[in-house]
C-alpha cells in the first residue's frame, strides 16, 4: 500500500484530505509542523509527501522541504507543494526548494491524484472508492 505523508497545520484541511485519500486506498501519516515532519518522515518512510507551504509556526514548508531533501533517507521522496497561493512565483519557489510538483488549495482531488500518479506511477496510487 502506498503511504502518503500530509504536512498540514490546519486541522480541518488535514482531516478532509486524509479521509479523501484513505478512501482511495492510501496509507496516511501526518505532521502538523515542519519540525514534526523532519522527525517523522525518516521513521515513516512515506512514498510521497504532500507539503503545505504556509505552515504557521516554526519552519515553513519550503524550508522543511529543503531539509528533507538534504537528508539521505528522504532525499528521493517526492514532495508535492500545497498552497492557497496560485502565483507563478510561488510555484517557482516550491520547485527551487526541491518539490517535484505544486498544487493549489482548495484541493481538487482528481487533479491532485493525477499529480500523485505522475510522481509514483498509477499502479501505486491505491484504488478508486
Automatic annotation (TrEMBL):
Keywords: Phosphoprotein, Two-component regulatory system. It comes from the Bacteria. InterPro entries: CheY-like_superfamily, Sig_transdc_resp-reg_receiver. The keyword Phosphoprotein applies. It comes from Ferrovibrio xuzhouensis. Residues 3-120 form the Response regulatory domain. The modification 4-aspartylphosphate is found at residue 52. The keyword Phosphoprotein applies. This is Response regulator. Gene3D superfamilies: 3.40.50.2300.
Amino acid at each position: 500500500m502506498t503511504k502518503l505523508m500530509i504536512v498540514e497545520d490546519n486541522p480541518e484541511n488535514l482531516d478532509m484530505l486524509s479521509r479523501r485519500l484513505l478512501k482511495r486506498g492510501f496509507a496516511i501519516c501526518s505532521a502538523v509542523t515542519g519540525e514534526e515532519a523532519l522527525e517523522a518522515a525518516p521513521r515513516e518512510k512515506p512514498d510521497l509527501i504532500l507539503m503545505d507551504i504556509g505552515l504557521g509556526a516554526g519552519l515553513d514548508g519550503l524550508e522543511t522541504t529543503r531539509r528533507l531533501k538534504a537528508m539521505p533517507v528522504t532525499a528521493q521522496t517526492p514532495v508535492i507543494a500545497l498552497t492557497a497561493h496560485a502565483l507563478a512565483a510561488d510555484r517557482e519557489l516550491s520547485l527551487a526548494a526541491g518539490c517535484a510538483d505544486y498544487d493549489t488549495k482548495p484541493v481538487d482531488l482528481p487533479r491532485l491524484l493525477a499529480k500523485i500518479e505522475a510522481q509514483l506511477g498509477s499502479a501505486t496510487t491505491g484504488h478508486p472508492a
